[in-house]
TrEMBL record:
It comes from the Eukaryota. The keyword Oxidoreductase applies. InterPro entries: 3Beta_OHSteriod_DH/Estase, Lipid_A_modif_metabolic_enz, NAD(P)-bd_dom_sf. One of its GO terms (biological process) is steroid biosynthetic process. Belongs to the 3-beta-HSD family. PANTHER family: BIFUNCTIONAL POLYMYXIN RESISTANCE PROTEIN ARNA, SHORT CHAIN DEHYDROGENASE_REDUCTASE FAMILY 42E, MEMBER 2. GO terms for molecular function: oxidoreductase activity, acting on the CH-OH group of donors, NAD or NADP as acceptor. The keyword RNA-binding does not apply. This is 3-beta hydroxysteroid dehydrogenase/isomerase domain-containing protein. It comes from Coniophora puteana (strain RWD-64-598) (Brown rot fungus). Residues 7-266 form the 3-beta hydroxysteroid dehydrogenase/isomerase domain. Keywords: Oxidoreductase.
Length: 342
């Protein structure tokens, strides 16, 4: 049996690190990383190539060095960066990855998209993959990720390369430098009594280990001899924990797990009022050249229903979330506490 040689682009990021760990845990011996961030891997057997996806030669060089047959592309610009930068990284960078794979004989490519590619700022209940792309998109990040995904899907089957796109929602877990630290910081600062919106909006979260598992399942099923190849190649899949909950239930789960008491009385700021406050803080931030404490995007994020139907992933990828939100919260908070001590 011929095994793949894996190149994880963005392998030093949150998702990338967990994908690398799971590949090694299941016994894969040919795993490499390409990342703009210079970070030594936990396993010294994993070669790390420093490179930028906006430079196609960096990608080609890494593919050639590790003789990759499967590329998992998790690298992206973070939301909030200038539009031109996001287009350069998310769109042009992804085109470079696809073209480098095609020119160097890579057979499989799994792309990390986002569930927000179909989001237009309105409530979405149990949305599936038949939903159109957002029109308009709520920000540059979602729009550029959608443009990149379209190119990945359109490239399936060309030059011997087979592609698929995964759309995780609300990822969190160990090594998370954004969601978990931010939410735990709210409890630390004594602001956990504040609630934006009525908390009737359901939201999907995804434990990072479950998201990583989905990427491995997708990569396996892109093999031509796999019985589910035709169900995966050229397709996009929503990936979540399959357990949507009212938005504020999740941070409160983290706080409770971390030993913080949940306030008996909550100060509820209606969505419209929070939006007005956010406009003011954004103006102050712009004038002072400082990052605003509250933005209209964060209000939209907290107050809108967004949850997905993962039936397609369950069927085609045989995806089933192994780690529940409760277990994921416990693992994440344990990691966060240890990180606080270092």
């Amino acid at each position: 049996m011929i095994t793949d040689s894996y190149l994880i682009i963005g392998g030093n990021g949150l998702l990338g690190q967990h994908i690398v760990e799971q590949l090694l845990d299941r016994g894969e011996e040919r795993v490499a990383i390409l990342d703009i961030v210079q970070l030594s891997p936990a396993n010294p057997k994993v070669p790390v190539y420093t490179g930028d996806i906006t430079n196609v030669s960096d990608i080609q060089s890494a593919i050639e060095k590790c003789r990759a047959t499967c590329v998992i592309h998790t690298a992206a610009s973070l939301p909030g960066k200038p539009r031109q930068f996001q287009e350069q990284v998310n769109v042009s960078g992804t085109r470079n990855v696809v073209n480098a794979c095609a020119s160097r004989g890579v057979k499989k490519m799994v792309y990390t998209s986002t569930a927000s590619v179909v989001f237009s700022g309105k409530d979405q209940h149990n949305v599936n993959e038949t939903a159109p792309y957002g029109n308009p998109h709520v920000d540059d990040y979602n729009e550029t990720k959608a443009d990149a995904e379209k190119f990945v899907i359109e490239s399936n089957g060309k030059n011997g390369l087979y592609t698929t796109s995964l759309r995780p929602a609300g990822m969190f877990g160990p090594k998370d430098r954004l969601t978990v630290p931010t939410m735990m910081g709210v409890a630390q600062s004594g602001r956990s009594y504040i609630q934006l919106g009525n908390n009737q909006n359901l939201f999907d979260w995804t434990y990072i280990g479950n998201a990583a598992k989905a990427h491995l399942l997708a990569a396996d099923r892109l093999s031509l001899d796999h019985p589910k190849f035709r169900l995966v190649a050229g397709q996009a899949f929503f990936i979540t924990n399959g357990d949507p909950r009212p938005w504020w239930e999740f941070p409160r789960l983290l706080w409770k797990t971390g030993g913080y008491s949940i306030p008996e009385k909550t100060t509820v700021i209606p969505r419209y009022a929070a939006y007005i406050i956010a406009m003011f803080t954004e103006l102050v931030g712009w004038l002072s050249e400082k990052r605003p404490s509250l933005t209209r995007m964060s209000v939209l994020y907290c107050c809108t229903s967004r949850w997905c139907d993962i039936s397609k992933a369950r069927h085609a990828l045989d995806y089933n979330p192994d780690i529940s939100l409760e277990e994921g919260a416990r693992i994440s908070v344990d990691w966060w506490k240890k990180a606080q001590q270092t």
